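anyone seen this seq b4? input:
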Amino acid sequence: MSAVIAARYARALMNLAAKDQQVDQAAQGLDLVADMLAESPRLAEALENVRATGPDKERTLQAVLDKAGVPALVATFSRYVLDKRRLRLLPDIRDQFHRLADERLGRAKAAVTVAAPLAKEQEASLKRKLEAVSGKTITLHVTVDPAILGGAVTRIGSTVWDGSLRHQLNRIRESIVKE
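predicted toks r here
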């Protein structure tokens, strides 16, 4: 249920940020706020304390936001989230907002698993090819897993391309067993 609520808040912030063409600034501001709350459990605790008054919490939050230089849109949004007692959802809201921002701005994250480390030139070439295939600007995250034996397994969103040697050997084994 909290994921649904976080998605609603993220969409609302996205609509406001897109209208003002501040999507990246809002994402950065949201990161600042979520990181501050994660790094300072005492601050998060104070802002969620049921014994503190709403105006006191708002002044505390505003002072922190001002000091951190959070954009006005995100500061207003953060105060709204605080008022609605949803501050604990901020990490989920941030994740949902980044997903929406990536969609809107034509960006995607590619998780690539390879059997051995790639050279910088190989990574750059792979990134260019994935951008050509997906039509998006790719952020590449490469992990090494010798268990795939060779090749690569690539995931962009829900799409997976399994070009691993292990996968190919399994397909060959299955075709032999079927015959």
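The chain has a mean pLDDT of 91. The two ends are 48 Å apart (CA to CA). kinda curious what u guys think
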